[in-house]
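Example S7 (structure tokens).
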């Protein structure tokens, strides 16, 4: 029972982090891009993200503008992996104030096996819906 409570608590924390990231990303457009992390305030300027294709191909990246970068993937502006495999659905993201933290996290996720990446996505987005649908247009 204690293990289940711990898992539910962890899931709830991740869910709240996801919602906080969405709210902060929207608020950043209006008010100077700030986020509270461990009691300190820092700029939310970088995101690690995972995209998925309809056939299940995954791509992990890092950016300083999540909305713009996802739209670039969707519009297939740049030649490369995501264009070749039609990887355009945003299924996961995390916000960072420091580019070094974001790059470190991106590298960590890229080293993971597919199953671990899928588990991470399912924690935040169990239906694998396209989170970019929540972006303001």
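Recovered sequence:
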């Amino acid at each position: 029972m204690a293990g289940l409570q711990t898992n539910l608590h962890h899931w709830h924390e991740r869910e709240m982090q996801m919602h906080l990231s969405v709210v902060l990303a929207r608020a950043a457009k209006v008010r100077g891009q700030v986020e509270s992390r461990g009691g300190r305030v820092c700029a939310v300027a970088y995101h690690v993200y995972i995209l998925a294709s309809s056939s299940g191909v995954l791509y992990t990246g890092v950016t300083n503008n999540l909305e713009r970068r996802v739209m670039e993937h969707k519009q297939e502006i740049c030649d490369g992996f995501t264009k070749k495999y039609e990887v355009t659905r945003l299924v996961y993201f995390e916000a960072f104030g420091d580019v070094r933290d974001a790059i470190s996290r991106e590298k960590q996720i890229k080293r993971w096996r597919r199953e671990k990446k899928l588990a991470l996505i399912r924690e935040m987005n169990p239906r694998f819906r396209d989170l970019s649908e929540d972006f303001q247009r």
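Notes on this example. Residues 1 and 7 are 10 Å apart (CA to CA).
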